């Protein structure tokens, strides 16, 4: 097996060598294996959901090739998870799998599946629209599925311009009927509905201009295509929710102003295509106190305000309500948090935060801590807790789903 | 995460990944970053050294004073003592294994001893390369992102 893998690698690199110019280039193999267990101390709210423990394991390989002149690059990052409790969480994805041409000077062209991150704030990822959320991984919307794309980047004196053509829309993943952290009804991910012009195969387009001006980092983006965020309708059986994907047009702005120990951050979007055109924004700061208590520790204090003006709701065709925006938990919320970096050789750090819904006082809280163990291991603890959840709040369906995760990762 | 973020440069006196080196110990020693006071000469290991006190002119330094020993033959800095905000001796840096690159001398072994904690960090350089063709444009986000 190893023999044949090597010969495949050799022939690929030989083929790339002819493409790249002269010699065989440079291979890099890496990866990580993680074992994880999530514990839910409270009993499940809905039938079919499991109780207590959720053991799980992940594998991610990382294969990189670069031609000798650095102009041709290939990156392949497959990911897979096995989960003992939730069949939907057992899944595989090509996180990245692309070829990139880097010109001598000022442009690059990327073809394949890739991950692109836009944004500055901590509490919500509003402008980050290129990749679909891998919703079975966590509810923080930070895990993303690989997105097929052709991306042309121009790096000029006047800034950076990225142009995207995005074929191959990915539907969002959701926990299955037995999974925790879901709505009262499970989501039937096999039967998505594509509204109006949002055919399943429709191509999406995006453009982004980014640059820095002194202490300002600024990004302006536009997206036209199928919304990564679905709304929901009740299936004819009445036993499941069907995701509904709309065609949207969105403009966005993200900024960071760096001034000494202060980072001022903001993100804003205007979106059309889901009910009435709406505005949403997040603005806040992170202030760092260096060497707190005369120790090498740095303490970051975070505060952000979140606003979302959308009209969200179910799509109830029978009542003629066919145009609404997807649910959001962030209409009028305040986030405060603290980041503690120990500046030690193990790179120990902690981040804790609380989000409060200003309208109904529902609270959600999280703590994340991580530390490297030796050269190749990392241990992580994550917890999310829900308090005082208003029955009408989006979080009501997960109010019994406080959890604690422990993860041990081995890097190669 | 493979993201490129801008971080603040305000944290000059913080330790670098748990070591005895602070960020400000790495940065270039440009003439205008200090005011200087000549202390005198001293013979160390058979070499004649100039001893110079230098006082940081930049904000947020963790030091009130640095005392530097510079050999009179090659003008190489051999030792620096760092004095903390209360004026006490905090750390001693010893520079050795100087090698030449086309007329430019660089120390390859930097040993920092912290007198408060009695810990030591050795910073060993294997090789320097100059004139690699990099310019300021290579350090913008988009370029940093495509390196890996």
Task: Explain what this protein looks like in three dimensions.
- The complex is a heterodimer of chains A (412) and B (148).
- Chain A is mostly beta strands.
- Chain A has a single domain (25-411), classed as Porin.
- Chain A is 5% helix and 51% strand.
- Chain A has one helix spanning 2-20; strands at residues 26-40, 52-66, 72-83, 91-102, 107-114, 147-156, 159-166, 193-194, 204-213, 216-226, 231-234, 241-245, 247-259, 262-272, 278-289, 298-308, 332-341, 349-357, 363-373, 377-387, 403-411.
- In chain A, a hairpin with a 4-residue loop joins β4 and β5.
- Chain B has one domain (23-147): outer membrane lipoprotein receptor (LolB), chain A, CATH 2.50.20.10.
- Chain B contains two helices and seven strands, in the order αβββββββα.
- Chain B has helices spanning 23-26, 141-147; strands at residues 34-44, 47-56, 65-71, 77-83, 89-101, 104-114, 119-124.
- Chain B has a seven-stranded antiparallel β-sheet with strand order 1-2-3-4-5-6-7, with no helix packed on it.
- The longest helix of chain B is centred in the last third of the chain and has 7 residues, at 141-147.
- Chain B is globular, with a radius of gyration of 17 Å.
């Amino acid at each position: 097996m190893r023999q044949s893998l090597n010969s495949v690698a050799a022939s690929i690199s030989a083929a790339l060598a002819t493409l790249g110019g002269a010699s065989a280039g440079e291979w890099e193999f890496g990866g990580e294996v993680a074992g994880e267990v999530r514990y839910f101390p409270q009993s499940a709210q809905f039938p079919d959901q499991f109780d207590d423990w959720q053991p799980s394991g992940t594998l991610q390989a990382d294969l990189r090739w670069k031609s000798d002149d650095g102009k041709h690059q290939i990156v392949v990052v497959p990911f897979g998870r096995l989960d003992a409790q939730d069949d939907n969480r057992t899944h595989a994805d090509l996180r990245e799998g692309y070829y990139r041409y880097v010109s001598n000077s000022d442009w690059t062209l990327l073809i394949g599946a890739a991950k692109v991150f836009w944004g500055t704030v901590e509490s919500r990822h509003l402008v980050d629209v290129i990749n679909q959320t891998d919703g079975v991984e966590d509810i923080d919307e930070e895990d993303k599925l690989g997105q097929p794309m052709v991306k042309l980047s121009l790096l000029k004196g006047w800034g950076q311009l990225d142009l995207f053509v995005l074929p191959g829309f990915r539907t969002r993943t959701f926990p299955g009927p037995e999974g925790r952290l879901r709505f009262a009804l499970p989501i039937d991910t096999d039967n998505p509905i594509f509204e109006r012009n949002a055919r399943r195969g429709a191509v999406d387009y995006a453009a982004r201009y980014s640059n820095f001006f002194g202490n300002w980092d600024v990004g302006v983006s536009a997206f036209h295509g199928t919304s990564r965020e679905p709304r929901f309708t009740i299936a004819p059986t009445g036993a499941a929710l069907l995701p509904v994907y709309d065609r949207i047009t969105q403009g966005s702005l993200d900024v960071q102003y760096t001034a000494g120990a202060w980072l001022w951050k903001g993100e804003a979007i205007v979106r059309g295509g889901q009910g009435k055109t709406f505005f949403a924004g997040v603005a806040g700061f992170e202030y760092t106190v260096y060497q707190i208590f005369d120790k090498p520790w740095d303490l970051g204090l975070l505060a952000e305000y979140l606003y979302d003006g959308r009209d969200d709701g179910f799509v109830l065709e029978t009542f003629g309500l066919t145009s609404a925006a997807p649910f959001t938990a962030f209409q009028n919320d305040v986030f405060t948090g603290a980041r503690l970096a120990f500046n030690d050789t193990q790179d120990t750090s902690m981040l804790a935060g609380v989000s409060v819904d200003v309208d109904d006082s529902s609270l959600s809280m999280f703590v994340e801590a991580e530390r490297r163990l030796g050269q190749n291991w990392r241990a992580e603890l994550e917890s999310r807790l829900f308090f005082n959840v208003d029955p009408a709040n989006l979080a009501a369906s997960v109010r019994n789903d406080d959890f604690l995760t422990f993860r041990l990762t081995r890097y190669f | 995460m493979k993201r490129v973020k801008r971080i603040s440069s305000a944290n000059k006196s913080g330790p670098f990944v748990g070591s005895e080196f602070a960020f400000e110990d790495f940065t270039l020693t440009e003439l205008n970053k200090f005011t200087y006071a000549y202390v005198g000469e001293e013979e160390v290991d058979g070499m004649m050294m100039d001893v110079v006190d230098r006082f940081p002119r930049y904000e947020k330094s963790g030091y009130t004073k640095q005392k530097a020993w510079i050999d009179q033959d090659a003008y190489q800095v051999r030792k620096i003592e760092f004095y903390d905000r209360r004026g006490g001796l905090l750390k001693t840096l010893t520079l050795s294994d100087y090698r030449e690159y086309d007329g430019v001398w660089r120390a390859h072994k930097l040993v920092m001893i912290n007198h408060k904690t009695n810990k030591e960090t050795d910073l060993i350089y294997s090789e320097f390369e100059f004139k690699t063709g990099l310019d300021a444009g290579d350090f913008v986000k988009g370029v940093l992102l495509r390196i890996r």
